[in-house]
Amino acid sequence: MTTMSPRVMHVLVLIALIFVVACQPQSPQVPTPIANVPTSAPDAPTSLPSPTTIATPTLAPTPIARATPPPPVEESLFDVLMKPLAADAVKRRAERAKADPEFAKSVDLGLNEDRVNFLLYGYGETHEPPVTEKATIGSYTIISYDLKSRKADVVSFTHDIRAPEVERALWKPGEKFYALRMDQAYPVGGFKLQRQMLRNATGLAMDYQIVFRDAAIASAVDNVFEGVEVNVPFAFQVHPFYLDGKKYDKGTFPQGAQKMDGKRVIQFIKTVPITEGYYGKTLEHNTRKHLVFSALLESLKRKYGEPKFWFNLSGFVTKELMAGTVTYDFDPIPLALNNISTATATMNKLSSAREIPMPAIRRSIYVVDVAHGDGGVRWVEGDALENPISKKDIAGGIYPHLAYEVPPGSNPYGDLVTEYWGPVRKLVRSTLIVNVSPQNAQPE
Q1: Residues 6+ apart with CB under 8 A from 301
Q2: What single DSSP character describes residue 13?
Q3: Are 37 and 399 spatial neighbours (Cβ–Cβ below 8 Å)?
Q4: How large is the angle between the packed helices 214-223 and 262-270, nearest 10 degrees?
Q5: Is 137 helix (H, G, I), strand (E, B) or coil?
Q6: CB environment 114-127: b (16+ within 10 A), e (fewer)
Q7: Which residue from 210, 198, 115 is spatially nearest to 153, judged by alpha carbons?
Q8: N or C: which end of the chain has fewer CB within 10 A?
Q9: Are the beta carbons of 254 and 232 closer than 8 angstroms?
């Protein structure tokens, strides 16, 4: 029993890191900054404070009609982890519904039916010349696992989106305030505030949350996978980058398969290519991240049956948790112990298999201006052409610069579920949900 409870958590943390490698978006090209506006507004900190973990209470989903049940799918590694997590998620939702009067209003019951949702927040240093020399930014990714189809839907956000929840958490009467971006939710209000913000924005219940620095990804590549082989489609050069406070020189990636260590992986997925003008979709950050994602999954399938892999994984997770580079808002030990017999039998079966089935990504949404992704938000300068609230805020100096995105026509001073996040919620629901019966559809 002593080996099983950590193993469940270790695999969950590792898969979360792999998913974020694939799904964590980078900033798109931003508009020109506004002149004569104070630059001291707290939207781009140089360090990320560690908030106090907040105890969390969450509403049993209401069943909805389905046209045709999906065919049986082979049990995956994720299915093993989902059994205790799914049961606990129902309890957590029910507790939150009782404790939080805003829960029922913000959570879309039909959208959450037969799902377990994970909110991942990865943060680190960025260098985006010529605009940004060094800043600490974070990105949100939601993995919504469908228990019936056994596939994952992924919702990613650009960190440039304005977050009124964060502004309200910091607001003091009589003081001037500035628009704040959504990646500041965790530094300002920890798990509780970022859960509320993403729940408002999507209608999804944030059942579980994991937070980590990008340095944890580098450490996993080095200490768990012992390097990873990535097939680079063609040669290119990249600008310098920061990792753990140190600036590394620009580099070159030759074409072809090559083994990368952790630092090299971070350089490959985060840095800005050196090109004349726009470097094209083939060099977009998300394209490079998917190459690393595929390489890590292949390595996981090969190494899963090796005792050394589990030894390395155990050491990695223990070290990162003690260092504070990985934190989470739930206790995995009771979940594992309460399901020890079933989970042990399944994990033993998977350990002896030649190929480990992993969950497929069924649908993916990138919430960013339509010029770069799937929409739901747009640059505030463009919104100001039609939205008098955005126009007034720009004129009043609420925005330190124009590198903010907002839902079209939104009101950051009204009810955030119905007056601000509506376009994002509509995008998420229309993309993720299938065969919704009319009686269970929730209007925005």
Answers
A1: 355, 356, 358
A2: H
A3: yes
A4: 140
A5: strand
A6: ebbbbbbbbbbbbb
A7: 115
A8: N
A9: yes
Residue type, 380: V
Residue 383 contacts residue 406 (beta carbons within 8 Å) = yes
Angle value at C-alpha 214, between 15 and 423, nearest 5 degrees: 75
pLDDT tens sequence across 163-209: 999 999 999 998 989 999 999 999 999 999 999 999 999 999 999 99
What does the pLDDT read at residue 49?
A: 39
Between CA 85 and CA 382 the distance in angstroms is 42
State if pTM tops 0.90. Answer: no
**Residues with Cβ within 8 Å of residue 33, at least 6 apart in sequence:** 131, 400, 401, 402, 403
Averaged pLDDT of the chain? 79
Note the pLDDT tens digit of each residue in 219-253.
Answer: 999 999 999 999 998 888 998 989 888 999 999 99
Taking CA atoms, 120 is separated from 23, 144, 394, in Å, by 10, 11, 31
Task: Characterise 195 by phi-psi region: left (phi > 0), alpha (psi -120 to 50), beta (else).
Answer: alpha
Q: Are strands 208-213 and 115-128 parallel, antiparallel or unpaired?
A: parallel
Element (H, E) at 135: strand 132-146
CA–CA dist 177, 43 (Å, integer): 11
The CA-based diameter of the chain, rounded to the nearest angstrom, is 65
Contact between 116 and 206 under an 8 Å Cβ cutoff? The reply is no
CA angle 53, 55, 59 (to 5 degrees): 135
Buried b (16+ CB within 10 A) or exposed e, 18-41: bbbbbbbbbbbebeeebeebeeeb
pLDDT at 440 over 70: no
* CA separation for the pair 135, 39 (Å, rounded): 13
